[in-house]
Amino acid sequence: MSQETSHLSSEALAAFLSRRVGAPEAAAIEAHLAGCPSCRAELTAAHRTGARRERPKRVATRMAAAAAVLAVVAIGLRSPRADPTSAGPVFRGPESGGVVSTVAPSAGARVARDELRFAWAGAGPDYLYRVLVLDSAGAELWRAESSDTVVTPGADLRLVPEVAYTWYVDALGPSGDSASSGPISFGVR
Amino acid sequence: MHESFPTCRTQSFGLMTSTIPASLSSLLASGGGASQEEAWAAFLAAHSRLLLFVARSFGGDHDAVMDRYVALIEHLSRDDYRRLRAFADDGRSEFSTWLVVVAQRICLDHRRARYGRLRSTDDHARNEHATRRQLADLVGVPADLVPLEDRGDLPADEALAARETRSALDAALATLPARDRLLIELRFTDDVPLAEIAGILGYPTRFHAYRRLNQALATLRSALAARGVVSPG
Questions:
Q1: Helix A37-73 and helix A23-35, axial crossing angle in degrees, nearest 10
Q2: Of A14, A42, A166, the CB nearest to B97
Q3: What is the tens place of the pLDDT at every residue in A138-148?
Q4: What are the structural domain ranges in chain A?
Q5: What is the rounded average pLDDT of the residues B23-43?
Q6: Are B80 and B175 found together in one domain?
Q7: Is there a contact between A38 and B195 if contact means CB atoms under 8 Å apart?
Q8: Disulfide engineering: B188 pairs with which of A5, B57, B135, B232, CB 3.0-4.6 Å?
């Protein structure tokens, strides 16, 4: 099959996705992928297929973890807000390099879950903001979009005490410029 | 058209090799006859969900999916399980990841054999053009000067300027490390969201991919400036 000789082998693609290649081979694979739309399409499709297959498992794991602490975090929380994840992507391009100054929670802070608020300094008039919370593996747990500079997470953000999380906020300006706060670690108690 | 890519199966970088699933090792060790048929049935029982998942991902009705599934298992069992033995010989990746890649390739070949190669549509070309123009904007090159194809409707001097700018952009791209070029191609040619790019390239978060992309764009701007293509801003 000509595919096997002129394009990346299935083994090379799979090893690259599995991060099981050394630096010299990774560089060769990346160079090929950069110039080969066909192999890039295969790579992206394989990643998407793998991600879709993994998703129910991750959700189940998160749900199990969340269930263990549900009694703790469910008390005193607000009613769930409209699902912020249902909105389509707003921030398409890379940021212009600007920085959003964050206020709270500050880096390394441990706050009571029912007092958790994400706050930052406004980047300018008519900016839109997107706040993301990631788990320790970098997987997205929660997001919200707002034109305000304070967001109070609803019950849909389930956090486990004494576990490290990361949050950041992206800002999109009215003329398409954007900025980001950079990652800030925090936890709940 | 594609560059030749050397096979690397004999190279070893001392990396961890994957465990071959029991269902596969039993199949490959089976001597033929009834025991091999049993092992093959056990292999399919263990992996048919993944194969069906890939077969479904190509769309179509139930018959089309089952058609692809049959093609998959026929291909995997061909020549005394030659394709599966290739994994056992290589063994670097997760078996499920490898099986997804192989199954996708088999499904693609199956579709091409039936319907021929899909020609790129006008929409695809327009999208590619649009995302490439976005790259031009971001590195400060007037987008109109970076056509993907030569345009016959431009006056001679504008056509020349467009070709020179496009050539400068391609040359500047070529100076980037392969990983950065791949990042840029995924983002601006294929329009893959940064969250997915982060997963594909192993960045911990999309934020890391953002940062890397910005650094690569800054390098591109410098390379373009060195070639006399100056940002209008």
A1: 110
A2: A14
A3: 778 888 888 88
A4: 2-73, 84-188
A5: 88
A6: no
A7: no
A8: B135
Cis previous bond, A84, omega within 30: no
- Chain A: nearest CA to B142, how far in angstroms? 17
Distance of residue B233 Cα from the nearest chain A Cα, in angstroms: 13
B133 and B108 housed in the same domain: no
A134 Cβ under 8 Å from any chain B Cβ = yes
Question: For residue A16, which of B192, B179, B21, B216 has the smallest C-alpha distance?
Answer: B179
Nearest by CB to residue A94, choosing from B6, B186, B210, is: B210
Both B191 and B145 in one domain: the answer is yes
**Looking at the partner chain, which of B6, B109, B214 has a beta carbon nearest the beta carbon of A94?**
B214
Mutation target to probe the A interface, by most A beta carbons within 10 A, among B83, B96, B97, B102 is B97
Q: What average pLDDT does this structure show over B168-191?
A: 89
Contacts of A101 (CB under 8 A, 6+ apart): A120, A121, A181
Q: In terms of domains, do B28 and B66 share one?
A: yes
Pick the CATH number of A84-188 from 3.40.50.300, 3.30.70.2760, 2.60.40.10, 2.70.70.10: 2.60.40.10
Find, among A137, A132, A140, A142, the residue nearest to A164 by Cα: A137
Q: Would an 8 Å CB–CB cutoff place A13 in contact with chain B?
A: yes
Tokens encoding A40? 């890039």
- For residue B132, being part of any structural domain is answered with yes
Residue A33 and residue B102: Cβ atoms within 8 Å? no
| Distance in angstroms (rounded) separating the CA atoms of residues B39 and A175 | 62
Question: A181: which chain B residues are within 8 Å (Cβ-Cβ)?
Answer: none
Give the residue numbers spanning the domain of B220: 122-226
pLDDT at B4 exceeding the cut of 60: no
**Contacting A residues, span 100-129, partner chain B, CB-CB under 8 Å:** none
**Pair (B104, B127) in one structural domain:** no
B82-141: per-residue pLDDT in tens? Answer: 999 988 777 788 888 999 999 999 998 888 887 765 554 555 555 556 666 667 666 666
Give me the residues paired with residue B178 across strands: none
pLDDT digits (tens, 9 = 90+) for A149-171: 888 998 889 898 888 888 888 87
Partner residues linked to A170 by β-bridges: A130, A180
Contact A42 B7 (CB under 8 A): no
Residue B158: inside a domain = yes
Task: For chain B, give the longest Cα–Cα distance.
Answer: 75
d(CA B177, CA B213): 12
B74 in the same domain as B43: yes
